[in-house]
Specification:
It contains 6 helices and 2 strands. By secondary structure, it is mainly α. It has a domain at about 5-110. It has a two-stranded parallel sheet with strand order 1-2. Helix 1 (about 5-25) packs across helix 2. It is globular.
Length: about 160
């Protein structure tokens, strides 16, 4: 099977992964950026395609972070639950090298860090929700049965 046919056949899977990443990340991630991130994750040999797309959509390249205290309380709770369960944002779980994202020219707005304990922005205290080690490589945080994430330390999903 030639390359174009393979790419055409796999397009629905890439679109599914793109929409899943958008749902996991939240409203701050546009479709085009999610598509580019999924493309870099699943087909690193298509970096030139992502770079060409990014050149048509200029912005400050790299991974940037939003501000926790500017989020609605609903979004803060949603992100806290995700971070308690997974330890990293959905974009970090892709395991992409930040230098690769920067070199392609993509502008990505990832989750900012929640406030440290004792910091008051009107929400609960958080202790060590985001770990400082890099996100795991090779997984997109989605199991084969369609559920997000992996098992927790106690063995439950």
């Amino acid at each position: 099977m030639n390359y174009r046919t393979t790419r055409w056949l796999l397009a629905p899977l890439r679109q599914l992964r793109t929409r899943r990443l958008m749902a996991q990340h939240g409203p701050a991630l546009p479709y085009d950026t999610a598509w580019a991130l999924i493309t870099l994750h699943t087909a690193p040999d298509e970096t030139a395609l992502v770079r060409a797309w990014a050149n048509e959509h200029p912005g400050t390249p790299g991974v940037h972070h939003d501000y926790w205290h500017k989020l609605s309380s609903t979004e803060q709770r949603r992100r806290r639950a995700w971070l308690q369960r997974h330890g990293h944002s959905p974009i970090q779980l892709l395991g992409l090298d930040p230098l690769l994202v920067h070199s392609t020219g993509l502008h990505v707005l990832d989750w900012g860090r929640p406030p440290e304990p004792g910091n008051t922005f009107g929400d609960e205290q958080v202790s060590g929700v985001l770990s400082k080690e890099p996100a795991p490589r090779g997984g997109d945080g989605i199991s084969r049965d369609g559920e997000e994430g992996s098992r927790r330390a106690d063995g439950r999903r």
